[in-house]
Design goal:
- The complex is a heterodimer of chains A (106) and B (434).
- Chain A is an alpha+beta fold.
- Chain A has one domain: 2-Layer Sandwich (Alpha-Beta Plaits), CATH 3.30.70.20.
- Chain A is built from 4 helices and 6 strands; from the N terminus they run H-E-E-H-H-E-E-H-E-E.
- In chain A, strand 3 (59-61) and strand 4 (67-69) form a beta hairpin.
- Chain A starts with 17 loop residues before the first helix and ends with a strand.
- With 434 residues, chain B is of the alpha+beta class.
- Helix content of chain B is 35%, strand content 26%.
- Chain B is built from 15 helices and 19 strands.
- In chain B, strands 3, 4, 5, 6, 11, 12, 13, 14 and 15 form a 9-stranded mixed beta sheet that branches.
- In chain B, helix 9 (318-338) packs antiparallel against helix 10 and helix 13 packs across helix 14 (404-415).
- The N and C termini of chain B lie far apart (50 Å).
- The chains are: A alpha+beta (106), B alpha+beta (434).
- Bound molecules: flavin-adenine dinucleotide and iron/sulfur cluster (2 copies).
- Residues 35, 54-56, 58, 74-80 of chain A line the site of one iron/sulfur cluster.
- One iron/sulfur cluster is lined by residues 35, 54-56, 58, 74-80 of chain A.
Amino acid sequence: MNQDVAPLPGSHYDGLSFEDRMATVEFRVAARPHITVDSDVCRSCTTKACVHACPAQLFVPTSDGGVLFNYEQCFECGTCYMVCNTEGALTWSYPEGGHGVVFRRS
Amino acid sequence: MAESADVVVAGAGPAGAAAALVAARAGLRVVLVERGPFPGSKNMYGGVIYPRVLDTLLPRWWEEVPVQRWVTRRATMVMTGTKALTVEFRGEDWDAPPYNGATAYRADFDSWLAGKAADAGAELVCSTTVTGLLRDGTGRVTGVRTDRPDGDIRASLVIAGDGVNSFLAKEAGLYEDWSVTHFTVGVKEVLALPREVLEDRFNLTGDEGLDIEILGGTQGIPGGGFLYTNLDTIAVGVVLSLAGLRDSGKRPEDIIAALKDHPAIAPLVRGGELKEYSAHTIPEGGMDGMPHLAADGMLVAGDAAHLCLASGIWLEGVNFAIGSGALAGETAIEAIGSGDTSAAALSGYRRRLENSFVLANHRKLRGAHKLILGKRAQTVYPELACGIAQRVFTVTDPQPKAGLRRWVHDERKRGGVRLRDIVKDGWVGWRTFG
Ligand SMILES: Cc1cc2nc3c(=O)[nH]c(=O)nc-3n(C[C@H](O)[C@H](O)[C@H](O)COP(=O)(O)OP(=O)(O)OC[C@H]3O[C@@H](n4cnc5c(N)ncnc54)[C@H](O)[C@@H]3O)c2cc1C
Ligand code: SF4
Ligand code: SF4
């Protein structure tokens, strides 16, 4: 943690950005995405629950009403497919063996 | 990697490793397949292993298991936005073998347990994802497909220990009514503190540890919090109902942040440097969420079978995974010995689970998750308990103390808690936990 940065008022991260938070985790990124999102389907989604529920913040809403997804820093937890209630929006599987998240102290 | 085996186990978590250990010890040819680069690399949890289940499986396990601290004190904290009421218990004999609990990192613990299976003769294959089931014309499971080239493994029996998302149990059609309401997500931070600071702060001597379960610190989302002590880190996190999180619009890391800002928690985590952030889902539905446990040629154990016990003050999954995995291993020995691994021949698995702590606890605590995740247990009762405590401990001179009956009455009125509901919940709680 960067001790020089004073916590912003109302910020809980003691100066730690979300990027820094994710940088504490090791990811062995696979060449092929293990989760895919069909942004066309997402356009009709009224909840966009994945956007706030994904602990890794991997879903970003786009200006055209869809979502942009990046699989690289994924915990492989399953939250997104469990909170998504639109059929066909997500395909979800595990990364190929040896790839993806590596926890060491969890 | 072997092309065929008696038993192929998917997942080298506690369930899979225990199953492989028991089956391999009996001389069966066992392949234990793990998708992570090493066992435990994909796994996170709160942080305490409850080890009674190891006593028979690995006698004197405590001499070698890689732990952080032996849990000698367990606390439950009930909190509101600003208040907190803590009950803490120091156990007798918890600081000596056979111990009651230990904090450990899963990378260490799961690797150790899977190593025991390998020592017993199981072939441990890491960095390999099971991508599906092999089946014959009748639908019977005959092995697994993996993502290695020529990666099929044929086996008389497949044991699915592939965790909460179990694609294998789903593929085999064992989950009849899957529902998001049976799941929670846990997010946690591991924060480093110098060992002396940590020990002073938590009043710990040597390798003793403290765990704190928290009720009411999750911003109205059904769930709970936890704080566990490791050697030179603390694990702090929250467990959130997925449906609640979905509907809340809140972010998981903000809920942890709010918990860390609570006046009762902030001094405990102050100065901790984030070492690892993590997330994982938990099957919390108990009996209500459980799939069928056997198919032709296949058994399911641990989180894959929804066998994790989550009911408020108890969050025990590793021991339930080891217990069920070991019983799956025993069932494998019997079924393969008799040359019949049909679902009917595997029905002894369920009987074994019923006769063990695994399903006995689930049967007893059926419904506990509904009670604990209900609105009254989550927000109303913490307010009530903390409100009463505030009155009991506040000195009101020159007014005389009003007395407990008055305080309870006033707090009940203030929180709009109906006596009828307290009696009803008390009765349900007593029947569930009593
Ligand atoms: C936040 C949180 C806190 C918890 N706190 C506690 C606690 O303090 N104490 C406790 O006892 N329990 C706790 N639990 C529960 C506990 O972690 C689980 O119940 C336990 O890990 C279940 O063990 P398992 O072997 O069934 O599954 P897992 O531990 O999930 O292991 C499954 C294994 O299978 C592998 N796998 C999955 N799919 C495949 C595939 N297709 N191919 C190959 N390998 C695969 C995974 O990589 C993993 O290693 C907690 C859980 C969470 C999320
Ligand atoms: S992934 Fe699901 S929840 Fe997220 S925007 Fe698309 S449809 Fe909605
Ligand atoms: S699996 Fe978990 S971490 Fe990965 S994208 Fe889905 S919600 Fe986010």
